Amino acid sequence: MSVKVSVQDCLSQIELFKPKVATLVSSVSSFQSTDGPDKALKIHNEALAVKDGIEKIKPYVINVQRPVSVADGNTTLQAIKDLQKSWNIVLDHAIKKKPYFDALPVGNINALFAQDLKLTYDAMLSLANACIDAAPAELQAESKATKKEFEDAIKKVLAVYQ
């Protein structure tokens, strides 16, 4: 995508992305010790859909018409913070439910989840850097702090899955 897009175009892409995150939140949250490998693989596929969704948003952010106003920047930052709250639920449950994944009668589920987390982490960092690059100067510090919160949370989970 080389054509410039509006902030509203970016926000529309985020709205299209939200259901993917909500589905993943639901699946990870509801995973129980009695669930089998089929549900774990469903979570894996949903995690990949989230990563793919992040990658679809990035070109919109990179090509957003600049300068971005502080009002538009705040709206976008709030949308990202809302998504981060949902993502934090996924991360919390990934830690809590790890013993359930460990107990599955299939090997390497945790390695698969660790790979999913790493791929999503890489995609999110790339998107976060694009957002920070596009953000107005007044929102740079808050944008960087939001990115740091994400990094810290996912690094904690990645440590558990190593």
How much β-strand is present in the residues?
under 5%
What is the CA-CA span between the terminal residues?
36 Å
Low-pLDDT windows of residues: none
Q: What class would the helix/strand composition place it in? A: mainly alpha
As a whole number of angstroms, the C-alpha radius of gyration is 17 Å
Quaternary structure: single chain
Total number of beta strands: 0
Helix-residue proportion:
over 70%
Largest sheet: none
- The overall average pLDDT, rounded, is 94
The global form is: elongated
Count of alpha and pi helical runs: 6
Q: What is the chain-wise order of helices and strands? A: HHHHHH
InterPro entries: Cell_wall_mannoprotein_1 (IPR021054)
Pfam families: HsbA
Describe the structure.
Helix content is 80%, strand content 0%. The protein is mostly helical and 162 residues long. It is elongated, with a radius of gyration of 17 Å.
SSE blueprint:
Layout: H1 7-30, H2 37-62, H3 70-96, H4 98-102, H5 109-134, H6 140-161
Helix pairs in contact: 1-2, 1-3, 2-5, 3-6, 5-6
Question: What attributes does this structure have?
Answer:
single chain; 162 residues; mainly alpha; 6 helices; 80% helix
